[in-house]
Design a protein that fits this description.
- It is a single chain.
- The protein is an alpha/beta fold and 150 residues long.
- The protein is 39% helix and 15% strand.
- Helix 1 (12-24) packs across helix 5 (121-138) and helix 2 runs parallel beside helix 3 (73-82).
- It has 5 helices and 5 strands.
- It has a 5-stranded parallel β-sheet, sandwiched between helices.
- The protein has one domain (4-137): Rossmann fold.
- The longest helix has 18 residues, at 121-138.
- The protein has helices at residues 12-24, 37-44, 73-82, 100-108, 121-138; strands at 4-8, 30-34, 61-64, 91-95, 113-116.
């Protein structure tokens, strides 16, 4: 099965730009898009609408917005880090927030990276391309899968 990128993004424009940037960068991985924090956790832990999903197929990387409906991005991050199945899963915060408190809270919560969405599409596409290449091709994961020790 093809490794998955989980994109957690509630803004339709940012979602479209991210998907377009990944496609332009020839990232062939399947991208699963969820639009709020509750849906992200349901997907990750195979609950609710995703209860039929194989919970053993952990995404290769999560691209997580901070300002989400239902459950905020920082709370999603804390839930990911609190669960043995996902605690090692790479999480990239991809947000429009340039606030120092969000940056500090993201890293304190266990984010692997914090990227501010550039306003310019060319810059945004380049940032997403670099993220995709690094997390999908360069980064080495722990044995046993992206979120688990083998």
């Amino acid at each position: 099965m093809q490794p998955v990128i989980l994109l957690v993004e509630d803004n339709a424009s940012d979602e479209a730009l991210t998907l377009r940037a990944l496609k332009r960068s020839n990232v062939a991985n399947r991208v699963v898009v969820v639009r709020d924090g509750a849906e992200a956790l349901d997907y990750l832990f195979a609950k609710g609408a995703y209860s039929e999903r194989d919970a053993g197929e952990t995404p290769r990387v999560v691209m997580l917005d901070l300002n989400l409906p239902k459950i905020g991005g920082l709370d999603v991050l804390r839930a990911i880090r609190a669960d043995e199945r996902t605690r090692l899963l790479p999480v990239v915060i991809l947000t429009s927030s340039e606030e120092d408190q969000d940056l500090v809270a993201g890293y304190a919560g266990g984010a692997n990276s914090y990227v501010v969405k550039p306003v310019d599409f060319t810059e945004f596409a380049d940032a997403v391309r670099q993220l995709g290449m690094y997390w999908l091709l360069v980064n080495r994961r722990p044995p046993g899968g992206p979120g688990q020790l083998g």
